[in-house]
Amino acid sequence: MENLMKGKRGLIMGVANNHSIAWGIAKQLAEQGAELAFTYQGDAFGKRVAPLAAQLGSKLLLSCDVEDIATVDSVFETLEKEWGSLDFVVHAIGFSDKSQLKGRYADVTTRENYSRTMVISAFSFTEVAQRAEKLMKNGGSILTLTYGGSTRVIPNYNVMGVAKAALEAMVRYLAADYGPQGIRVNAISAGPVRTLAGAGIGDARAIFSYQRRNAPLRRTVDIDEIGKSALYLLSDLSSGVTGEIHFVDSGYNIVSMPNLDELKK
Ligand code: NAD
């Protein structure tokens, strides 16, 4: 399997460093011949993302903070000017105030952080898709990243779980809206990965190790595995798939109890 993405151009949003899920995805896409543009959030991240983007031969590295919609507009204006069209977008962006990702959801969640979390981690996906649509004249594929805390309670995931539930609903509504134009919209629901964002969740280590012990595959996933599934969803291999929440979590989502050894402890 080679050059699955040859001739395709896409935008990768959400690389913070070489541990980011977006980086795992970008590597797989570049290996299959895709031409990539990257966004970064602020100068500090820009310094880390620049060498990574260069490593994959990218010539477009654009500053973007989704809280400032003018910067999102500017990214898509640049893409229109430089490329004229777009084949895919990866939205791997999430944020919530760390102090609210521990303790009881009922106690710690404030209106201010709820709004901020929803805008950055969920609604920005709609705003990105709205702009990408205009450049996807020959159809396209749009992908976001979610987590199982959207539909089931994971300790400390709190308001991020609420935002991921909204994000997954957006995947379905956008998939229905854009389907007639051949634009597909999907999400990968990844198991826990040690990233900057992942480390912000309270007791991340304990949750990571619990999933490793209890997922059917008895391990967690890495960013290369998420990248390979993303390659499927962003390439023509998945041409008949849209509106899907695709789990890449070692099967953790299918179990309802700890494994027997752990259960009997
Ligand atoms: P990460 O910290 O490497 O990436 C998060 C990215 O979000 C960073 O690049 C950061 O710059 C960006 N971001 C945050 N606020 C932003 C803003 N206002 N404007 C623009 N960009 C902003 O962590 P990651 O784990 O690779 O996260 C990527 C996505 O994967 C997130 O949506 C996260 O919720 C999701 N996810 C992560 C895990 C996990 O365990 N790490 C599991 C499932 C889903």
UniProtKB/TrEMBL annotation:
NAD(+) binds at residues 14, 20-21, 41, 65-66, 93, 164, 193-197. GO terms for molecular function: enoyl-[acyl-carrier-protein] reductase (NADH) activity. InterPro entries: Enoyl-ACP_Rdtase_NADH, NAD(P)-bd_dom_sf, SDR_fam. Keywords: Fatty acid biosynthesis, Fatty acid metabolism, Lipid biosynthesis, Lipid metabolism, NAD, Oxidoreductase. SUPFAM superfamilies: NAD(P)-binding Rossmann-fold domains. The active site is at residues 147, 157. Pathway: Lipid metabolism; fatty acid biosynthesis. It is an enzyme of class 1 (oxidoreductase). Gene3D superfamilies: Enoyl acyl carrier protein reductase (1.10.8.400), NAD(P)-binding Rossmann-like Domain (3.40.50.720). GO terms for biological process: fatty acid biosynthetic process. Pfam families: adh_short_C2 (PF13561). Its EC number is 1.3.1.9. It catalyses: a 2,3-saturated acyl-[ACP] + NAD(+) = a (2E)-enoyl-[ACP] + NADH + H(+). It comes from the Bacteria. Belongs to the short-chain dehydrogenases/reductases (SDR) family. FabI subfamily. This is Enoyl-[acyl-carrier-protein] reductase [NADH]. It comes from Phyllobacterium salinisoli. The lineage of its organism: Bacteria, Pseudomonadati, Pseudomonadota, Alphaproteobacteria, Hyphomicrobiales.
